[in-house]
């Protein structure tokens, strides 16, 4: 038995000549939360579908627990899609029992599992409530529970926090951690929330144009583009971004300057002490600033640096 539970070996997927995933090779460790990030259309959904057997690679191979995906019992995988897949006219308990039957889980085990899932996801008092009468947050928690009834080793969560209020999101985050820490499950997480990816993921893979750009821990990725703070500058005249980028590189101890989403991002150590020099430099070059702000380096900065776009673009 290997330390990693999923291995992709140079997998490629083409659709009518378009390459959606291009030679993706990675390993997902057993019992980790693995964040999978990429701009829309980057190929991450196609990659995950190949990993869990929903799509066949054009070339390459996927192994789970060292076995070829085609020979695997698909019951070791549980998928919670972004789109809610629910039966409106069943109760929460009935929905979970039906899913247990679909996976041919013994009735006694299903009963026990349903009770635990309802309790863990704060749905016990809604066990006999019709799904159509649940709130949006409750439906999303039930959607997650349906992917877990058969006790899978691997759980794929596609945008699990979509539409949740901050309090419900925190509850969900704690539950995702418990899947790893208490049940030893491997969780593959896709999200548009950088804070979610940063807080939950043991490692993060960033993909763009079908290729893997980086795979590392969030902390290492943030260090990769350098420690320090970010000054984000919005110009009155966006056509001068390139000019400003070059001009600011002349400032001493500036670690990097790059454009992201129509703004100039400058990264440096003790950057607050350099604000007067930055503004003086811009004024000298007759550059008008519409807005300027400062913040700590984040995983989103890494993402923008690597892909040139924010995650939601």
Can you tell me about this structure?
There is one protein chain. This protein has 313 residues and is an alpha/beta fold. The protein has two domains: 4-217, P-loop containing nucleotide triphosphate hydrolases (Rossmann fold), CATH 3.40.50; 226-296, YebC, transcriptional regulation domain (Alpha-Beta Plaits), CATH 3.30.70.980. The chain is 32% helix and 29% strand. It has a six-stranded mixed beta sheet. A hairpin with a 2-residue loop joins β12 and β13 (263-268). α2 packs across α3.
H/I helix tally: 10
CATH topology of the largest domain: Rossmann fold
- Count of spatially separate domains: 2
The largest β sheet comes out as:
6 strands, mixed
Order of helices and strands: EEEHEEEHHHEHEHEEHEHEEHEH
Alpha-carbon distance between the two ends: 40 Å
Any key phrases for this structure?
single chain, alpha/beta, Alpha-Beta Plaits, 6-stranded mixed β-sheet, 4-stranded antiparallel β-sheet, 29% strand, elongated
In short:
With 313 residues, this protein is of the alpha/beta class. The chain folds into 2 domains: 4-217, 3-Layer(aba) Sandwich (Rossmann fold); 226-296, YebC, transcriptional regulation domain (Alpha-Beta Plaits). It has helices at residues 44-51, 92-102, 107-120, 136-146, 166-181, 194-200, 218-224, 241-248, 275-284, 299-307, and strands at 4-15, 18-29, 33-37, 59-64, 67-68, 77-80, 154-158, 186-190, 203-208, 211-216, 229-235, 254-260, 263-268, 289-296.
